[in-house]
Amino acid sequence: MKRTRHPKEFKIQVAKELIKTGNAALVARRYELSPNMVNRWVKEYKNGKFDDHSSTGDTVALETKELSQENDQLKKLLGEKDLEIAILRDLIKKKNPHLLKNLK
Question: Which BP terms in the Gene Ontology apply to this protein (predicted)?
Fold first, then answer.
């Protein structure tokens, strides 16, 4: 039997199908492959072996920038919420000091 090299796209397709269905024997039978090979492809897919490394530098930089912007936005939002809580507690303390015991 001649050894066949399958393209990366085919391996990714088979791995995604196995993850979706959860039945290695069924997927392997459909594509006339060994169930062990299909399971190995899924393991490699989950470990990131099939990622496209040609453009990862650009995508990683872009993702890092987006995450950094989102992080800054969330920090600002959290700071605003903390300030709002502090102001509300001061108002409660001034108007109803007996209620402050319940907040702590």
Answer: DNA transposition
